[in-house]
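Problem 12. The chain below contains 252 residues. Write out its predicted structure in token notation.
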Amino acid sequence: MLTVDFDRLGIGPGAKVIDVGCGAGRHAFEAYRRGADVIAFDQDESELRSVETILRAMAENGEAPAAASAEAVAGDALSLPYADETFDCVIASEILEHVPHDDAAIAELIRVLKVGGTLAVSVPRWLPEKVCWLLSDEYHSNEGGHVRIYRASELRDKISGGGVRLTHSHHAHALHSPFWWLKCAVGVSNTDHPAVTTYHKLLVWDLMQRPKVTKVAESLLNPLVGKSVAMYFHKPRAVESPAKPGQSVASI
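Solution.
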């Protein structure tokens, strides 16, 4: 289940991509399938072992072009171990809401992005997330849980302030909002509740079958109750300060 729209990223053979806070690796896997050289980056080493296993299996089964490469790397999003302007595309999906020092993380995402590259960021949308917080403390007040709820305009301004330009935004996963409201209402850890298991089966069916009825329903509902908001930013060529008399203005 992808939150980021890969058709907007321009990822293809030879592109250098980092998926920061990759979690289970869903976006890293898709980038690898499309022929990119991928870094799946996360601080959870146990999760990364599973990601690395799947990446290896994809290579062995021919699910990614032979020329592509993929690596799972453990580290801190506040101090990415890469030089400035390393990646053509930087993905940070559903991570910033977990990071206390999100400004520092955003600065790192922008730092390692090449000029002309694309930064894709997604976070939980304000309204669906607010309902979850109101229904359940357990949903967010756990170790590594969500530390803030973003308004889209706030996140846009935070990221744009780093010198990148917003090019598009959209909402995703409307069918997941009621599922999480239900889980929060009955208890997040109450995974055996009949209503939760029934709705979960619906989501799995939708994921596996992708029937037209749910695709249409979600597209109509996304603007209203999409669980996530995704934003896409372009890193433009910077321009130096105006030259003093007698000097020329150079772009970098």
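Discussion. The beta strands are 16-20, 37-42, 70-74, 87-93, 113-124, 165-172, 228-234. Students who got a different answer should revisit the alignment rule from Section 12.3.
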